[in-house]
Amino acid sequence: MYIADWDTFAEQAEALYRSDPLRVRYVMKYRHCDGKAVLKVTDDKTALQYKTDQIADVKRIEKLNLLFFTLMAQGSEAEVPPVEQSEASAAQVFETTQKPQQSGQAKKGQKRRKG
Q1: What CA–CA distance (Å, rounded) separates 40 from 70?
Q2: Which residues are paired to 28 by β-bridges?
Q3: CATH assignment of 6-82, given 3.40.50.1220, 3.30.720.10, 3.60.15.10, 1.20.5.110?
Q4: What is the CA radius of gyration of the chain?
Q5: CB count, 10 Å around CB of 95?
Q6: Backbone phi, psi, residue 55, to 5°
Q7: How far apart are CA 42 and CA 35, in angstroms?
Q8: CB–CB of 69/22 below 8 Å?
Q9: Rounded to 5 degrees, what are φ and ψ at 100?
Q10: Biggest distance spanned by C-alpha atoms of the chain
């Protein structure tokens, strides 16, 4: 079923994922010729869909993607900010889930190997 309201779709999609994370799928399709994006969250029993052709919805879709990535990486019981929260706090959540990178410099007194 298509849901017309974004907030309702985001809340129901999150609740559906948290109910059974191993069975829920999240799919996003974009048709360039139509300029429409369709988001679908389903567990084979319930299917939630949202269709848009508005550029303003891109940020909302990014935030929903961040929510699902966080839930998939940290587990369905993870505390995540609401989808409607500001970009700065969403970026902070993303930064805390990333692993620190090691520097590629050789230690003092040791030569780097070639190849």
Answers
A1: 18
A2: 39
A3: 3.30.720.10
A4: 19
A5: 8
A6: -65, -30
A7: 23
A8: no
A9: -70, 145
A10: 65
The first and second tokens of residue 80, run together, are 């995540």
Beta-strand ranges (E) seen in 44-91 are 47-52
Residue 53 and residue 96: Cα distance in Å, rounded? 32
Average pLDDT, the chain: 82
Cβ count near 63 (within 10 Å): 19
The residues near 2 (Cβ < 8 Å, ≥ 6 apart) are 49, 50, 51
**pLDDT for residue 81 is more than 70:** no
The amino acid at residue 101 is Q
On whether the CB atoms of residues 41 and 88 are closer than 8 A, the answer is no
Q: Which contiguous run of DSSP H or E holds residue 74? A: helix 57-74
Q: Helix, strand or coil for residue 17?
A: helix
Which pLDDT tens digit goes with each residue over 59-77? 999 999 999 999 988 887 7
Q: Which two tokens stand for residue 94?
A: 């993303």
Residue 25 token pair? 């799928």
